[in-house]
Amino acid sequence: IAVAQTRADGMGAELIVGDWEKLDNFGDYAGVAVQYPDTAGAINDYTDFFAKAKAAKALTVCATDLLALCSLKPPGEMGADVAVGSAQRFGVPLGYGGPHAAFLSCIDGLKRIIPGRIIGISKDVHGNPALRMALQTREQHIKREKATSNICTAQALLANMAAMYAVYHGPEGLRNISSEAHIKAKALAVGMTELGHTVLHSTFFDTISIQLKSMSADDYMKKAVAKGYNVRKLSETTISIALDETADDVDMQALLECAGGAMALSELRVKAEAMDATGGLGRTSSFLTHPVFNTYHCEMEMQRYIYRLERKDLALNTAMIPLGSCTMKLNAASQMLPISWPEFGNVHPFVPVEQAAGYQEMF
């Protein structure tokens, strides 16, 4: 939010942070932006909100989570003009907050002003399909302040990692990963409720906010840290816990023990499977329908596919690269290797500073 406010200030725009449910004077705003799921984990239906904003000619933007959208209704079906977010959850390490590739999508009516390079399909002189830049986005022949192509070059490696994660797992695999994270959150919510605590939202994906009973947030956090877990403190008596597909029974049991006692996880899972925590916002539409996302799902096929792509590319391992700075990005082996190191990759950006001493030294 602070980054957006700084950017808006330089453009002469005022960015106001508030409760979306209390907004009524839509005509006073050029656009509205909401988060889905929100910062506390809740899933909200923005259909009516977006409709009111668009009636007042305000742009509607939704910051969202790719993994959540494998299970949840996409923002476009609610009426969002633009969807943005991070592709980190598609196979990219946390890395203390980055670098990660972002994603940005929009309705057809806005595609001519979207930043970055848009590639379209044309035909060559022989009538064969040919890929070419569909829109004029190169900075060399447009006004400098309107240049947009450089925005997409620096994160190419991260974008490729996320894309290959989607290719390898495909829509069905991604749904399974998404569902696993969701059902673990539901099981934890059931367990916390049975221990006497209050789960604040009836709809959520993988993050639950909990009003603790007879213990403070600090007390819970001390117990959690002692077991090797970080949780978020929302207030003196409220915490938020985010799960993902890597959480296992040991993790779940430890989080429940911090809240008051061990429980039978198999029973919690049965109850979770019968529980609807999407509020009717489960995804029904298909995604990743292109054959490339539905073909290469074993290691051998994936390696061959990547190698075929590599052979089509003009890179430093086959030739000199004749163009300018945009095409001369090189990720050296010494830079690529640390991506997979847990000491670098498995550090959440919001961990206490003392848990990221190595990063602080590098900074």
Automatic annotation (TrEMBL):
One of its GO terms (cellular component) is glycine cleavage complex. InterPro entries: GDC-P_N, GDC_P, PyrdxlP-dep_Trfase, PyrdxlP-dep_Trfase_major. SUPFAM superfamilies: PLP-dependent transferases. Residues 2-257 form the Glycine cleavage system P-protein N-terminal domain. It comes from the Eukaryota. The keyword Oxidoreductase applies. Keywords: Oxidoreductase. One of its GO terms (molecular function) is glycine binding. One of its GO terms (biological process) is glycine decarboxylation via glycine cleavage system. The keyword Oxidoreductase applies. This is Glycine cleavage system P-protein N-terminal domain-containing protein.
